Amino acid sequence: MFKSLSLAIVLSFVSISTFAYSNSGNFPKGPDSALTPGALCEHPDSYRYPEKIAYCERDVSSDLKKEIFVNYDQLGYRTREMNRMAFKIDHYIPLCMGGSNSVKNLWPQHESVYQITDPLEPLLCEKMADGRISQKKAVEYIVEAKNNLDEVKRIIREVNQL
Length: 162
Known about the structure:
Blueprint: H1 2-18, E1 46-48, E2 53-55, H2 62-73, E3 87-91, E4 106-110, H3 111-117, H4 120-129, H5 135-147, H6 152-160
Antiparallel strand pairs: 1-2, 3-4
Helix pairs in contact: 1-5, 4-5, 4-6
């Protein structure tokens, strides 16, 4: 209960304060806060790290992936008209950080976006594994990064110093 409440507060604050992408392009530059608010693993397969973070194995069906593209295109994007290989279905809160496979945690991430954000995810999870950063702080960093692509390099530098 406490973890999900604190996650909701973090995500609300970061989404409201930093989500500045419009739907005028063909694909989203970041997750839509209404469709993809983020969600933690509720039915873990195991627990990881010194903090005992709930971990869910990757489990996203083809039907759910199609649903996510449809949902985002209803916002005015044109992802289904683009090359499917240019996208992945991204876990807003990565699985290694305790993210879930719920539709609330998934969005269609274009390669031009994941090339920027992907280097940060394993770095944050490595710091969690070493006990150098809490799940809460890692989630704050990843949410900030995925909603502010121009901040990713700064965040990586900051996390590297932990």
